[in-house]
Amino acid sequence: MAAQLTDDELSAALSGDPSGFSAVYSVISPAVLGYFRARGVDDAEALTQDVFVDVLPKLSNVRGGHSGLRTFIFSVAHARLVDYHRRSARTPHFTEFDPLEDHRRSSSAEDEVLGSMGGITSALATLNDDQREVLVLRIVADLSVEQVAGIMDKTPGAIKQLQRRGLIALRELVKEKDHAAS
């Protein structure tokens, strides 16, 4: 489980204290960044920053304690992701930069880690959009069924079914790859 805010840090953030917002950012931004990376955002760091720039002036209106704060932040993140995909659909596609063709530098540790995530991203790509969204919000963002239901505007039962079906599909994919490798 990810790090948690203390009650004092949460109170400070909700009252507008900069140190409280700093604590909120430190604790929750890695999960938001992971959410964007898992959903294939090409500049996940910038989108994460945008989320927290949007969240800062609205913190005093957040209700529901720790859970309410996480739900609010991931609601903003989800909205930013939807905007990102809409904007991407309207933007012309350019030839992608291929780091394997660029011999000006060697790969960094970050490149190695992000390269190993390709298998996860391709496995998630086999799911339908709702199943993928539920799994990323539940596992990467560490949100409860109820929080995900609120973000996706679905019932908790529907979220549970989407999660179950997504996990079954991933299990079958792993079995197929293991069978093919044998």
Give the count of helical stretches: 9
Percent strand equals under 5%
| Overall number of domains | 2
CATH superfamily of the largest domain, please? RNA polymerase sigma factor, region 2, helix turn helix motif
- Helix and strand content put the structural class at mainly alpha
Question: Percent of residues in helical segments?
Answer: over 70%
What is the CATH top level name of the largest domain?
Answer: Mainly Alpha
Could you describe the largest sheet, including whether it forms a barrel?
none
Termini gap? 35 Å
Low-confidence stretches: none
Globular, elongated, flat, extended or rod-shaped: what is the shape?
globular
Mean pLDDT equals: 85
**SSE order, one letter for each helix or strand:** HHHHHHHHH
CATH third-level topology of the largest domain: Rna Polymerase Sigma Factor, Chain: A
